[in-house]
Amino acid sequence: MIIIGLTGGISTGKSTVSSYIQEQNKVKYGNYVAIVDADKISRQIVEFGKPAYKDIIKYFSNKIEAPFEIENDKTKEKQFDRAKLGKFVFAPGNEAHLKKLNSFTHPRVRKEIMLQIVKAHVKGYKICLLDVPLLFENPFLRKICYKTVSTIISDKNVQLNRLIKRNPEIPSEQLLNRIEAQKLTNSDRERMADYLIYNDSDEISYLFKQVDYLIETELLPISQTYHLMEWVFPLLGALSGLNIMMKNYFKDDEKKDNNETIKLTDFVDI
User: Fold this and answer.
1) Is residue 68, in this structure, part of any structural domain at all?
2) For residue 84, is it within any domain?
3) Where are the alpha helices (H) located in 167-260, listed in sequence order?
4) Is 87 a domain residue?
5) pLDDT of residue 252
C-alpha cells in the first residue's frame, strides 16, 4: 500500500477532490483507495465530553465572548461556538492562541490517522489517501507519504469568492483573514508537492479529469507493484516503506526544482 498525501489551501477544492475519489472508488478505481479524512477526524475528537473538547472549553471560555459553550439545535448536545472560536484564533495578533488550539487537536488527530492507516493496510487497500489540510506543516505525516498532491487556485480573488459562497454568514474580512493566516503560499505548494491539481476553472469536469488521470494513470500502476511486494515479500515491503521515510527525511524543499512537480493540467484537455 502506498500512502498519498492530499492537501491544499482553504477553499481550493481539496474536499471536492476527496469526495469525488470516494464516490468513484468502486466505479472507476477498483475499490482500491482508502481515504483518511483529517477534517472529519478533527470534528470527531472535539465532540462533547472528549479530552480535546474539555481542553478547548477550559482555555478559551474566559477569552471569547459568552456564550462560548452552546447547545446544538439538532442533537441538543453541548458544543463550542465554532464561529466565535474561528473569529478569535484567526484574528490578527492571535497567532499564539491558534497555536494553542492546534496543540489540543493536532496530536490527537495524528494518533487517529495512524490507526486508520493501519486498518487500511490490513484490509488490503492499495492506496491510502491522507486528506490533510496542513500536511506540509506536519513533518511526521509528510514523511510517511510516498507522494503528495496539492490543490491550487492561482487567483486569490477566485479563492476568496468561493470561500464567501461557502460561508455566507461570515463577514468577508474574517474570511480574508483566514486565507492570509495560512503559512504556505501557492509558490510554496508548487515547490513542495509532487502533483498539482489546479481548480481555477468553473468547469468542475476539468477538476475531475485531473483527478482521474492522477489515480488511474499515475498512482494505481505504482501501487500495484508495492502491493504485491508487501504481501509476497513482507520484509521487502517494510524496507521499502522505511526507504520512503528516509528519503523524505533528507528531502530539501529549497533545492527542489519546480519542474520536478507534475502539473496535472498538462495531461488533460480543457
Assistant:
1) no
2) no
3) 172-180, 186-192, 204-212, 220-232, 234-249
4) no
5) 66
Closest among 7, 27, 28, 26 to 17, alpha carbons compared: 7
DSSP tag of 231: H
Helices (H), 123-182: 139-143, 156-166, 172-180
Q: Among positive and negative, which fits the CA dihedral 67, 72, 78, 81?
A: negative
Range of the domain at 15: 2-41+106-267
What pLDDT sits at residue 3? Answer: 94
Count of helices and strands (H, E) across the chain: 12, 8
Q: Which residues in the chain land under pLDDT 70?
A: 229, 231-246, 248-250, 252-259, 270
265 Cβ neighbours under 8 A, 6+ residues apart: 196, 198, 210
Domains held by the chain: number: 1
Omega of the bond leading into 67 within 30 degrees of 0 (cis): yes
The single-letter DSSP state of residue 258 is G
pLDDT of residue 56: 96
Residue for cell digits 492562541? 97
How far is 270 from 26, CA to CA, in rounded Å? 26
Residue 188 lies in a domain: yes
For residue range 199-244, list pLDDT tens digits in order: 999 899 999 999 999 999 999 998 988 777 676 666 666 666 666 6
CATH number of the CATH domain containing 138: 3.40.50.300
- Cell of residue 153, nine digits: 487556485
Torsion of CA 233, 237, 242, 245, to 10 degrees: 170
**DSSP character for 13?**
S
